[in-house]
Design brief:
single chain, alpha/beta, 5-stranded mixed β-sheet, 4-stranded mixed β-sheet, 21 helices, 14% strand
């Protein structure tokens, strides 16, 4: 690799940093200086490259050589490989888990080559703290196109025709929301990016904000132009310090370059963005609770009936609220056209889906796939299957409000509507894989424990109902289950789903409903035989069925 201009990309996502990536970066700089290689080898920090389970990651470009599980002790050898006669380090390559064969280039690794990284296109490839990297790849060109080539109505029409949908449970069409906000009466309007990601097992928003913050900003600025807003907020939880840091840097750089502030690019359009750090309440993912939180009030959903946020949101002004991924898609739609975006995915679910793939799967990490890909392709082709020769048992999608789907759904196409039909949802993009050693009653208990703790307590069905459901599940896992408990859980689920004020309560029963629907025999074994088939519940017999 000597005498060639190379770039060493050191992943600086939260996962790799926790594994020592920052020290690896610093040590690489020292080694390159010691070997007088600074002129021929550039070292850059990047955002999350996605394959978190293999971190810390180091990528060598332009060869696209992929080093995983890099340690500080590997740095001298990596540096030496750039000297005349040096060769890539095979022991750091990814090795196929079946054949044991080394795979040197990340484009050949199934975890990557089965994906379609559109929203995550820049993550792992650019320095998120350097706007120059973003501009070099066409960053903010969509903003120029929107401001100078299109009217606000034409921007909204482009988004509507693309078929882009939001990440709420129903996947509401983004363009229709933008149109409603633009049509809402009032001179003062706001744009909010919901980066309050608190679901167990989900980290797609964090990784996007950490790895490519300018794409999110660009989407928000275009949204502000489209609806007629001059002010935007990014609502991000304080537990995401790296995302907050990089967003602050990106906002300052965007202001300096004239993409934010007064008279953006000489267009006469004013728009600026402020970061609001939330305290970490799951209920603040609900629009009215999030809005109240920004206003300095307790984050609780407004009572029903309530006006739509698009018509009466922040300080009772029309407010456009979208997710991180939704905004990051906007520059692509404007640059490449709605036809390009709509050509991806299924008939009713366009574009791609991002999942935080975790749990009992060989390859954990952040993935992006076309809508319509099957669960089997995600779990086995990209995820590498279940480790330890264990059998697949279930997959939980959509965070704590989603559902647990059994093996009979492995060939189901993944899109908004299919997941809802099966009893789950797209939601936050969490995807937790479970193997044969997982107790589904205990899983339902785990998610109910989360949602009951996160209930804001305002409405009785959610506050008391989730608590009662948890107590029933807790009794079942401890051998105190009664024959009538399954019917009681179903009755409580129905009452909570129909009586709660917001989506937290309405969807909280989903893990219970799906585990009863698909794994009822496990509930019956716990209750009737005082036996946990998976051997998880300590108070019950640990003998497996």
């Amino acid at each position: 690799m000597s005498n060639r201009r190379c770039t060493i990309l050191v992943c600086q996502g939260t996962g790799c940093i926790s594994g020592g990536a920052e020290q690896i970066f610093s040590s690489l700089e020292e080694e390159m200086a010691r070997l007088n290689l600074e002129e021929s080898v550039q070292i850059k920090r990047t955002g999350c490259h996605g394959f978190c389970q293999r971190g810390p990651l180091v990528i060598i470009e332009p060869e696209s050589i992929f080093y995983s599980k890099v340690k500080l002790d590997d740095v001298p050898d990596i540096a030496q490989s750039f000297l005349p006669g040096g060769k890539p380090l095979e022991h750091l390559f990814y090795h196929d888990p079946v054949t044991g064969e080394p795979i040197p280039h990340y484009g050949d690794i199934p975890f990557y080559n089965k994906q379609e990284r559109i929203v995550l296109r820049n993550c792992g490839h650019i320095d998120p703290e350097d706007i120059g990297d973003f501009l070099a790849l066409g960053g903010y060109e969509a903003l120029r196109k929107a401001l100078f080539d299109k009217t606000p109505e034409q921007v909204i029409e482009e988004v509507k025709r693309s078929g882009l949908r939001g990440l709420g449970g129903a996947g509401f069409p983004t363009g229709r929301k933008w149109e409603a906000c633009r049509m809402a009466p009032g001179e003062e309007k706001y744009v909010i990016c919901n980066g309050d990601e608190g679901d167990p097992g989900a980290f797609q928003d964090r990784s996007t904000m950490e790895g490519d913050p300018h794409s999110v900003l660009e989407g928000m600025i275009i949204a502000g132009y489209a609806i007629g807003a001059k002010k935007g907020f990014i609502y991000v939880r304080a537990e995401y310090p790296l995302a907050v840091k990089r967003l602050k840097i990106a906002i300052a750089q965007a202001r300096e370059e004239g993409f934010l502030g007064k008279d953006i690019l000489g267009s006469g359009f004013d728009f600026d963005i402020e970061i609001f750090q939330g305290a970490g309440a799951f209920v603040c993912g609900e629009s009215t609770a999030l809005v109240l939180s920004i206003q300095g009030k307790r984050g609780m959903p407004k009572p029903l009936p309530r006006p739509r946020t698009a018509e009466m949101g922040l300080w009772d002004k029309p407010t456009l609220l979208n997710n991180v991924k939704t905004f990051a898609n906007i520059p692509l739609i404007i640059n490449r056209g709605w036809e390009w975006f709509a050509s991806r995915g299924t008939e009713k679910s366009k574009g791609t889906a991002i999942f935080s793939l975790t749990g009992k799967v060989a390859n954990c990490g952040l993935i992006e796939v076309p809508m319509g890909v099957t669960l089997r392709e995600i779990i086995y082709d990209i995820g590498g299957g279940i480790p330890g020769e264990k059998a697949f048992k279930a997959v939980q999608t959509g965070g704590p409000s989603g559902g647990c789907l059994p093996a009979s759904f492995l060939d189901m196409p993944v899109d908004f509507d299919s997941l809802v039909t099966a009893g789950s949802m797209m939601g936050s993009g969490g995807m937790v894989v479970m193997d044969e050693d997982t107790c589904m009653v205990d899983v339902a208990r785990y998610f109910l424990d989360f949602t009951r703790r996160e209930s804001c307590g305002q409405c009785i069905p959610c506050r008391l109902g989730t608590e009662q459901m948890f107590e029933v599940l807790d009794d079942i896992t401890k051998g105190r289950g009664r024959p009538e408990d399954i019917d009681l859980l179903l009755e409580l689920s129905d009452a909570i789903a129909h009586g709660s004020l917001c989506a937290l309560g309405k969807t909280a029963p989903n893990p219970v409903l799906t585990t009863i629907r698909y794994f009822r025999d496990e509930y019956e074994a716990h209750i009737d035989e005082k036996r946990c088939p998976a051997g998880v519940c300590r108070e019950l017999t640990k003998e497996k069925s």
